Automatic annotation (TrEMBL):
<protein>
    <recommendedName>
        <fullName>AB hydrolase-1 domain-containing protein</fullName>
    </recommendedName>
</protein>
<feature type="domain" description="AB hydrolase-1">
    <location>
        <begin position="186"/>
        <end position="349"/>
    </location>
</feature>
<keyword id="KW-0378">Hydrolase</keyword>
<dbReference type="GO" id="GO:0016787">
    <property type="term" value="F:hydrolase activity"/>
</dbReference>
<dbReference type="InterPro" id="IPR013595">
    <property type="entry name" value="Pept_S33_TAP-like_C"/>
</dbReference>
<comment type="similarity">
    <text>Belongs to the peptidase S33 family.</text>
</comment>
<dbReference type="InterPro" id="IPR029058">
    <property type="entry name" value="AB_hydrolase_fold"/>
</dbReference>
<dbReference type="Pfam" id="PF00561">
    <property type="entry name" value="Abhydrolase_1"/>
</dbReference>
<dbReference type="InterPro" id="IPR051601">
    <property type="entry name" value="Serine_prot/Carboxylest_S33"/>
</dbReference>
<dbReference type="InterPro" id="IPR000073">
    <property type="entry name" value="AB_hydrolase_1"/>
</dbReference>
<dbReference type="Pfam" id="PF08386">
    <property type="entry name" value="Abhydrolase_4"/>
</dbReference>
<feature type="domain" description="Peptidase S33 tripeptidyl aminopeptidase-like C-terminal">
    <location>
        <begin position="493"/>
        <end position="588"/>
    </location>
</feature>
């Protein structure tokens, strides 16, 4: 089977191997040296799928388990939705109730959401929001199940006359919707305040079947902290993480029970369809999905292509790798973002304390690498309080690389570590812990367990693959490590291995394919350098959805909203207003520097809002 776009077959930057139609294991690094190089992948494809094959996680034909060859089902109404059209409403006395009669959930619901004041623990921060409750089937596949799940929704009304509703998922997976809508001040995407923004707590989060594997937060935190990050794809290294993760997944199996099978993106996509119908607008989804929300958006678009109005996926996961648990493409530009962190520090010494050690990007990166190597070799450094562990340092740095707002604080923390300033390290660690625990959630009932458990409950319910033992996992884990010198082991330990061991599969899993033509084209958004969802993965997603558009921002960070760009805001307005896609090759510059002060951020935001 040949390359779908033969004019690119001789191009070394061709995103697909023309000899067999499959994605090479690693991209040509030259392609990441410039904007044009990075976009060359996309230019070779145009819009739509490049061939009949989907990108593979390895050279040659994909394993049979990765892309099942059976006839894919047509996802429309379930039998429940076709049959149960005359049932009555249920009174909610708890999150899940038994119904006295089968509830009505037709494909075009006639129910309307009753918006009112939000019941929250902090009415000051939720004063501008409205809340509602929507009943949906607990189990879309069980024809005998008469149980109902109540979704708690929150809405941030538009400024002035509303142009419609945009549903938003903030990612994770595991981030609840309502509290994150509060933290985004009601408008998750700058420049789109003329729309109503609606969110909800997806299954597994908040008050919606919360995936609490442990009743004690400290026990949960300690269990997650006990997972070592493998240093390479060998049986001894994989086994260490495997054993620690097994302790968690065994607890989750006992605790979650049947609810573990009711958490997954296919059911969440069906919940989204219920929300769309209950809104009573045009029956089409307008959606903004960030990070994991990009996977959810792609699954919705593949399941319900005729219900796509406007879908933006931002900070994109490769859908093929996502459903097989082999998404090492997440890390394709992680190390490049870290290098930018150090070089940007060099450019802003007045707000980056690391320059007190050295002003050279190369020297700063080498000192950081040396500290990682020492922690790997010698184990945790007990001379620091709290204990300085390799895993803690790696996790903290990755979390920081996602959001530039935290870069100056992390630079100070790294200065304390690299200069052996233990008093400063303790002071900064204490301040960080107090900040994390000092602000209560606005909405009660949010699960208090480790974020990692919720992530696994959702993500791993979607993953088709299970592996019986560490030895069998070595080959699948191997591609993660060359992608990033310091984050490959983290992703293997925190996302890959848990999914290989996860005791549940969702009762409905979307198994593919994503070679889909939607009613209206979706828009794929990516930074050129994203530390955890690479442009490489975004190009894959754009290639597989027919007619999709691509909008790229010249920025280092996770999802485009971590930057501020008048250009980005303009294109997003045009897309949501009338479906206009950016021209191929469009790259927007960010209007703030990598290391910025608050005044620079506010000035850039003001410029965006001024139009």
């Amino acid at each position: 089977m040949g390359c779908g776009y033969s004019r690119c077959c001789d191009d070394p930057h061709d995103y697909y191997s023309c000899s067999n139609g499959y994605r090479p294991i690693y991209p040509d690094p030259v392609a990441y040296q410039s904007i044009n190089g990075a976009l060359r992948y996309y230019d070779c494809q145009g819009y739509g799928p490049p061939s009949q094959y989907h990108p593979s996680t390895q050279q040659g034909p994909p394993p049979e388990w990765a892309y099942p060859q059976h006839q894919y089902p047509v996802y429309r109404k379930t039998k429940r939705q076709r049959d149960n059209e005359n049932a009555g409403a249920l009174a909610a006395t708890s999150n899940i109730l038994l119904a006295s009669a089968a509830p009505a959930f037709s494909s075009r619901s006639t129910s309307k959401l009753q918006w009112g004041p939000c019941q929250s623990t902090n009415t000051t921060v939720t004063a501008g929001l409205q809340c509602a409750t929507l009943p949906v089937p607990l189990d879309y596949q069980d024809e005998q199940c008469n149980q109902t799940l109540y979704l708690n929704l929150a809405r941030s009304p538009a400024e002035g006359q509303s142009k419609g509703t945009i549903l938003v998922n903030f990612g994770g997976p595991g981030l609840d919707g309502r509290n994150n809508l509060v933290s985004s001040n009601g408008v998750p995407v700058l420049g789109l305040s003329e729309y109503d923004w609606v969110t909800w707590d997806p299954r597994g989060t908040g008050t919606t079947l919360p995936a609490n594997c442990y009743s004690d937060t400290a026990v949960s935190t300690n269990a997650s902290a006990a997972i070592p990050f493998p240093q390479n794809a060998t049986v001894p290294e994989i086994s260490k993480a495997w054993d620690a993760v097994t302790n968690i997944t065994s607890t989750c199996k006992d605790t979650l029970g049947v609810n573990g099978t009711l958490i997954g993106s296919a059911y969440t996509a069906r919940d989204m369809l219920q929300i769309v119908d209950a809104l009573g607008e045009d029956g089409l989804l307008r959606y903004y999905g960030m990070s994991y929300g990009s996977a959810l958006g792609q699954i919705f678009a593949a399941m319900f292509p005729d219900r796509v109005g406007r879908i933006v996926i931002d900070g994109v996961l490769n859908p093929h790798q996502y459903i097989t648990g082999t998404d090492y493409q997440q890390l394709a530009t992680t190390d490049a973002v870290l290098d930018n962190f150090f070089s940007s520090c060099e450019a802003r010494p007045e707000i980056c304390n690391l320059t007190m050690l050295d002003t050279s990007q190369q020297s700063l990166r080498q000192q950081f690498n040396n500290k990682l190597d020492k922690l790997q070799k010698d184990g945790p450094d007990a001379s620091f309080s709290p204990l300085l562990r390799y895993e803690t340092l790696v996790s903290s740095v990755l979390a920081t690389l996602k959001s530039h707002a935290r870069w100056p604080q992390t630079a100070t923390l790294l200065y304390a570590i690299l200069s052996d300033n233990k008093a400063l390290y303790t002071k900064l660690s204490s301040a960080s812990a107090e900040s994390a625990s000092g602000t209560p959630q606005a909405f009660p009932g949010v699960s208090a367990n480790s974020f990692g458990e919720i992530t696994s409950a959702i993500r791993c319910s979607d993953v088709l693959t299970r592996i019986p033992d560490p030895a069998a996992d070595v080959e699948l884990a191997k591609p993660f490590f060359p992608q990033s010198r310091f984050e490959g082991g983290l992703l293997v330990a925190e996302t890959h291995i848990p999914c290989m061991l996860w005791p549940f599969k969702a009762k409905e899993q979307y198994t593919g394919n994503f070679d889909v033509k939607t009613k209206n084209p979706i828009l794929v958004v990516s930074n050129i350098y994203d530390p955890i969802t690479s442009l490489d993965a975004a190009l894959n997603a754009s290639a597989t959805f027919h007619g999709s558009g691509l909008l790229v921002q010249d920025w280092y960070g996770h999802v485009s909203t971590t930057g501020v760009s008048k250009c980005m805001a303009s294109h997003l307005r045009d897309y949501f207003a009338n479906g206009t896609l950016p021209e191929r090759g469009t790259v927007c510059e960010a209007d703030i520097p990598a290391f910025y002060i608050e005044e620079e951020l506010l000035a850039a935001a003001k410029s965006v809002l001024s139009g």
